[in-house]
Amino acid sequence: MTDRQELPILVIYTGGTIGMRGSERGLVAAGDFGSRMTNALALLPPGRQGSLPEYVVWESPHPIDSSSATPADWAALAELIARRHQDYAGFVVLHGTDTLAWCASSLAFQLQGLAKPVIVTGSQKPLGVEGSDALDNLEASLKFAARAELREVCVSFGGHLMRGCRTRKWYTQDALGFESPNWPLLGEMVDHAPVIYAARCHDTSGAPRFECLTDPAPVVLRLVLWPGIRARDVDRWLNDDQIRGVVIECWGSGNLPEDDALLGVLARASAEGKVMTAVSQCPFGAVHLGTYASGRILQDIGILSADDMTPEAAHSKLTHLLAGELTPQALRQRFLTPLVGERGAFTA
Ligand code: ASP
């Protein structure tokens, strides 16, 4: 496998800290990133520069702080990649770190059957600032994006390559940035060269099955339990016809309070057709809804196990499936099936 491809890489700049500049109000999203990126990469030692692939930069006319990103932004990104899929060897998406794992998860479900690498990255400090991680992340992402054996949406950050729909932002400031708690690294930068662990990568076959989200995306609520949560509050939140799905973040292996009023509210929402799934508040490991009596009741009222999915992946997957025209039964069956390597334990 060579690092050089005949087609260039498309770098898509959406905003985020990597391209931010200081202002009176603090860091703000800024444009003119392509030339800044090219100038910065030109400062790399010749050996490292020589192994960079050719690239073209597309800049969003309205770069944003990703804390304001919405599913419409992910849909626009997926459409751009789907439209230009044949024209480039791979894609690098430059994104703010705050919602980067959400974007990567959504892209993975929208771009199923990808035949090329889509590498999402950003940085904890702006490009050009002393001690910035931006240049290392740009170099790594370009080099990973040129690896034809990668056929999925990945996150490259802090020298690590991770499956996009398995990542979570883990550190507010550390250059590692992200972790992939339930799936091992897909690759690493070693001495500034990309190393891929092929046996851990997603094996796609067949034609791409791109299905970009339409605007507005289905509304999926995220319900995080805390001790003392009141049924009446949950009832108010769920009592909304526009809400079509709910991701419940349970305790441990999938438990919730044995509170009949709360269970009644969830059972009613489920019976009304809201699709509900349970993830764990623990970052490592999976939910097993049958283990405790307090978790088995979730199964009884039709709540789907999210297994070891991240909340970001469970939410994006539910949003994506609800946007399609699936029967309730087909939707439930697809939710429980791994589509892009988002659920299920790794076995070596
Ligand atoms: N607030 C920034 C953003 O998500 C943080 C970052 O990029 O690291 O765009």
Helix content: 25-40%
Counting helices, strands and paired strands, the structural category is alpha/beta
Overall average residue pLDDT: 95
Looking at the structure, the CATH topology of the largest domain is: Rossmann fold
In the predicted model, the low-confidence regions spanning at least 5 consecutive residues are none
- The count of DSSP E runs of length 2 or more, i.e. the number of strands, is 16
The backbone outline, from C-alpha atoms, is: globular
CATH-defined superfamily of the largest domain: L-asparaginase, N-terminal domain
Domains, number: 2
Order of helices and strands: EHHEHEHEEHEEEEEEEEHEHEHEHH
Judging by the overall fold, what is the CATH architecture of the largest domain?
3-Layer(aba) Sandwich
What share of the residues does DSSP label as strand, in percent?
15-25%
**Major sheet, described briefly?**
8 strands, mixed
- Distinct ligands: aspartic acid
Straight-line N-to-C gap: 23 Å
Radius of gyration: 21 Å
Widest beta sheet: strand line-up = 2-1-3-5-6-7-10-11
Instruction: List the total number of helices.
Output: 10
Just give the CATH class of the largest domain: Alpha Beta
Oligomeric state: single chain
Question: What would you say this structure looks like, in words?
Answer:
This protein is of the alpha/beta class and 348 residues long. The protein folds into two domains: 207 residues, Rossmann fold (3-Layer(aba) Sandwich), CATH 3.40.50; 117 residues, Rossmann fold. The chain is 28% helix and 21% strand. An eight-stranded mixed sheet has the order 2-1-3-5-6-7-10-11, with helices on both faces. β6 and β7 form a beta hairpin. The protein starts with 8 loop residues before the first strand and ends in a 13-residue tail after the last helix. The mean pLDDT is 95. The structure holds aspartic acid. The site of aspartic acid has 10 residues, from loops. Aspartic acid binds next to loops.
